[in-house]
Amino acid sequence: MQLEGNTILLGITGGIAAYKSCNIVRLLQKRGARVKVVMSEHATEFVGPLTFRALTNEPVAVGLFDDPSDPIHHISLAQEPDLVVVAPATANIIAKMANGVADDLISTTLLATPRPIVIAPAMNNGMWKAPATQANMATLRERGVHVVGPGSGYLACGNVDTGRMSEPEVIVEAVCEVLNPAPQDLAGKRIVITAGPTHEPIDPVRFIGNRSSGKMGIALAGEAARRGAAVTLVLGPTSLDVPCGVECVRVQTAAEMLQAALSAFQTADAAICAAAVADYTPAAPADHKLKKANERLDRIELVETVDILAELSRQKGERCVIGFAAETDNVVEYAERKLARKGCDVIIANDVSRTDSGFGTDTNKAWIVSTTGTQELPVLTKPQLADTILDLLQKL
């Protein structure tokens, strides 16, 4: 709940990405924020004000004179929030902001506000690359406006290029960072983080895997980067986005993850092994799809994979290595045994038998197990647990 007690004014301008602003409202509310909305008249052609009225339970401001009870509505809107975010921010509103134009409610509010401003540009790639837009963006950055994106991808015009509005989750993270900047206590440190499952091939189609989503390791990578660390994320197969500012090495198998982790660890200060690495891999994977009719899979001969956590711990010297233990019973007991067996500094024991913890969930029930004792943690969101682990790492 990083935004508890904060009021956010969401400005929505006339672009097709306005439909994503509904999700921005919900994500801000989940972080504890009160959200108010101001729209340009063109924005209402894409999403109606009633939608945002229903989502926020607040009046939605559109016109300069649409609230008779507030004759200077743009001033009250400018003063009330703790932060203003404009998403989508069209080339038009960016130009108005850069040049001090105030000819409607949203532009007058932006000109009048003393609060921090975050913008998420969204437009056609040609408009984004135009010299005028780039000059306007340079002006806004120089004035301290926080810019998120734009990203690259499929645009409404059919092009695949830069100009796509950043995803709502990324925009909300930027809002949280502006209002609650992370301490830079990991600046100058290099951290290797493994995340996600591994897929061990039986043939080119089938594999042995597990239910890991990669959410925990990705949360760790994002939080570590926010706190100033140079992060190398060794990521198994997952569809999740990689946090901004994180170097990512994508892998499929345990063997590939081992090599990537060892390579990155050579110049690192610490490693956090959050990946759910397969303990076994097929001894002789087929080079073609096995046919049920004449190549029955009556059995699969398996061989053990190399233990990545143990190998990094063996090479760590004075450096710090933190591992994870996903257990369904005797969670702390098994984690204590794992700590002694692997030789790492800390084990984060995770009870994956619970519905609010483990693979694919947004929260974890965990214990910190070290040679000095065991600390039980409450149920935390994965970013909260990531911050707790990084606090511990910083002390170590």
From TrEMBL:
GO terms for biological process: coenzyme A biosynthetic process; pantothenate catabolic process. CTP binds at D279, K289, F324, K338, K342. It comes from Collinsella aerofaciens (strain ATCC 25986 / DSM 3979 / JCM 10188 / KCTC 3647 / NCTC 11838 / VPI 1003). The gene is coaBC. The keyword Flavoprotein applies. Binds 1 FMN per subunit. Residues 186-395 form the DNA/pantothenate metabolism flavoprotein C-terminal domain. This is Coenzyme A biosynthesis bifunctional protein CoaBC. In the N-terminal section; belongs to the HFCD (homo-oligomeric flavin containing Cys decarboxylase) superfamily. In the C-terminal section; belongs to the PPC synthetase family. GO terms for cellular component: phosphopantothenoylcysteine decarboxylase complex. InterPro entries: CoaB-like_sf, CoaBC, DNA/pantothenate-metab_flavo_C, Flavin_trans-like, Flavoprotein. Pathway: Cofactor biosynthesis; coenzyme A biosynthesis; CoA from (R)-pantothenate: step 3/5; Cofactor biosynthesis; coenzyme A biosynthesis; CoA from (R)-pantothenate: step 2/5. Residues 191-396 are annotated as: Phosphopantothenate--cysteine ligase. Its cofactor is Mg(2+); FMN. GO terms for molecular function: FMN binding; metal ion binding; phosphopantothenate--cysteine ligase activity; phosphopantothenoylcysteine decarboxylase activity. NCBIfam families: coaBC_dfp (TIGR00521). Residues 1-190 are annotated as: Phosphopantothenoylcysteine decarboxylase. The keyword Ligase applies. It catalyses: N-[(R)-4-phosphopantothenoyl]-L-cysteine + H(+) = (R)-4'-phosphopantetheine + CO2; (R)-4'-phosphopantothenate + L-cysteine + CTP = N-[(R)-4-phosphopantothenoyl]-L-cysteine + CMP + diphosphate + H(+). The active site is at C157 (proton donor).
